[in-house]
Q: What sequence folds into this?
């Protein structure tokens, strides 16, 4: 299994600041370094696709992980970034995690199905302040996804998703024009594909907005 940590966005909501470099707590380890540390022992390769101007900054962190690669690319969407990365990987199964996220409690790296036949979503109980900001899912008693929505306020689903493992079979649904890979997963569900859910105990933080990042710091620094 290879890992993909797409970091080729413009970070416009954070005024261009690379969100994945934000520190996570008292030890000042960045969000990106937390993910790479957790993935290094369970993945053959870790791909960190990023924009050319960000590559020197990332390389300066000196991860010391020989299985990490930093392909440089300029893309318009996260889906395009993922497709470009898939074209250089030889793996059949992948784990995809956004590098500006943080998991407090159980870790999806250990719970997601690394050998999924199609797609496995890591899902958390959604907090009230996250409604309308995340992708949400509804699933049956067998933990198979029935419906997905993206950033829909007052939707009423109990769970949001924030990471996934997938087989190359999902690749046919990844459209470069779509903003993120959740659109591919939703399209596959609508087409009758089996997408399963792994429930993660704890909290999921999408640090793409200042509000969510401040919430994380309160949990890690002040609790």
A:
């Amino acid at each position: 299994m290879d890992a993909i940590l797409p970091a080729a966005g413009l970070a416009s909501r954070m005024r261009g600041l690379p969100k994945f470099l934000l520190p996570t707590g008292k030890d000042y380890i960045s969000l990106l370094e937390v993910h790479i540390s957790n993935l290094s022992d369970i993945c053959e390769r870790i791909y960190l696709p990023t924009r050319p101007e960000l590559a020197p900054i990332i390389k300066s962190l000196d991860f010391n992980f020989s299985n990490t690669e930093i392909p440089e690319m300029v893309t318009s969407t996260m889906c395009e970034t993922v497709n470009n990365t898939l074209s250089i990987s030889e793996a059949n199964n992948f784990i995809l995690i956004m590098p500006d996220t943080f998991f407090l409690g159980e870790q999806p790296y250990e719970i997601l199905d690394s050998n999924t036949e199609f797609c496995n979503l890591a899902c958390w109980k959604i907090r009230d302040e996250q409604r309308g900001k995340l992708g949400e899912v509804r699933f049956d008693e067998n933990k198979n996804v029935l419906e997905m929505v993206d950033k829909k306020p007052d939707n009423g689903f109990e769970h949001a998703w924030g990471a996934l493992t997938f087989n190359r079979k999902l690749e046919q649904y990844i459209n470069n024009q779509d903003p993120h890979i959740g659109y591919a997963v939703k399209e596959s569900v609508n087409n009758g594909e089996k997408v399963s859910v792994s429930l993660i105990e704890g909290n999921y933080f999408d640090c793409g907005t200042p509000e969510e990042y401040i919430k994380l710091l309160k949990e890690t620094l002040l609790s």
Residues 102 and 205 are 5 Å apart (CA to CA). The domain at 2-221 is CATH 3.90.550.10 (Spore Coat Polysaccharide Biosynthesis Protein SpsA; Chain A). The chain has one domain: 2-221.
